[in-house]
Amino acid sequence: MRDNKWLENLFDEMWEKYFFDVRRANQIEVKFSRKARTRLGSIRMTRDKKKSIILLNGLFRDSLIPTQVVEGVLAHEIVHYAHGFCSPLKRQHRHPHKGGVVKNEMVSRGLEHQYRIEKAWTKDNFVKEVSL
Ligand SMILES: [Zn+2]
């Protein structure tokens, strides 16, 4: 089973490798949430903007789920942060998802593989609902 420490390490690695040019404008907390049926991950920010919190579905604690799926979900939430959604950074789009802005950002940062694996896995294993 994976724990929050594992998740934090993966998050730091991904940031250094794919998002090194994105400023961390506040504290970012990353942790597993409870298991959920429909939501892969989410990001929110505290009212005082001092902290952003990324939650990943507790299902991903299971090491049978490929790491690349987890990377895809993490990257998705980091892209929201980079685009100024639930982060203090300047907002770059009117809507967090419209126009495929998340996919485009992931592809341009060399994360197309993770994007595709996450999509394929989700299609087979999940009923996805719209969320940040
Ligand atoms: Zn999203």
Structural description of this entry:
By secondary structure, the protein is α+β, with helices and mostly antiparallel strands. It has a single domain (4-125), classed as Zincin-like. Helix content is 40%, strand content 13%. The protein is built from four helices and three strands, in the order αβββααα. The protein has helices at residues 4-18, 67-82, 101-108, 112-125; strands at residues 27-32, 41-45, 51-56. It has a three-stranded mixed sheet. β2 and β3 (51-56) form a beta hairpin. α2 crosses α3. The site of zinc ion has 6 residues, from α2. Residues 76, 80, 96-97, 102, 132 line the site of zinc ion.
Average of pLDDT: 94
Query: What summary fits the major beta sheet?
Result: 3 strands, mixed
Side by side, the strands of the main sheet go 1-3-2
Terminal Cα separation, in Å? 26 Å
Approximate helicity band:
40-55%
Q: Please identify the top-level CATH class.
A: Alpha Beta
Attribute tags:
single chain, 132 residues, alpha+beta, Zincin-like, 3 strands, 40% helix, binds zinc ion
How are the SSEs ordered, and which strands pair?
Blueprint: H1 4-18, E1 27-32, E2 41-45, E3 51-56, H2 67-82, H3 101-108, H4 112-125
Parallel strand pairs: 1-3
Antiparallel strand pairs: 2-3
The structure holds zinc ion.
Residues 76, 80, 96-97, 102, 132 line the site of zinc ion (ZN).
